[in-house]
Amino acid sequence: MKRNVGPLDRIIRITLGIILIAAALTGYIGWWGWIGIVPLATGLMSSCLLYSLLGINTCPVGKK
User: Fold this and answer.
1) Cβ contacts of residue 58 below 8 Å, gap of 6+?
2) How confident is the model over 28-44, as a mean pLDDT?
3) Radius of gyration of the chain from its Cα atoms, rounded to whole angstroms
4) What whole-number distance in Å separates Cα of residue 30 and Cα of residue 23?
5) Above pLDDT 70, what percent of the chain?
6) Which end of the chain, N or C, is less packed with Cβ atoms under 10 Å?
7) How far apart are CA 41 and CA 17, in angstroms?
């Protein structure tokens, strides 16, 4: 898979994913907090399927 998630986007995704999962684990929010797995995984892999389908790329031009 090609990288299409830039550094700032990646940090935001990982942070949001961890916050949602932690909130679900502590019972602060319901089971839907487990959706945080999606932004966490896409942030860790630096690749987003939805970005690929929409032709979006937040990665710097020179990097692969």
Assistant:
1) 4, 5, 6, 8, 9, 51
2) 96
3) 13
4) 8
5) 94
6) C
7) 8
Instruction: Decide: pTM greater than 0.70.
Output: yes
Q: How far is it, in rounded angstroms, from Cα 59 to Cα 47?
A: 10
Average pLDDT, integer, range 35-62:
91
Would you tell me how many other CB atoms lie within 10 Å of the CB of residue 13?
22
Torsion of CA 50, 47, 57, 18, to 10 degrees: 80
* Residue 21 token pair: 């999962």
First-to-last alpha carbon distance for the chain, in angstroms, is 10
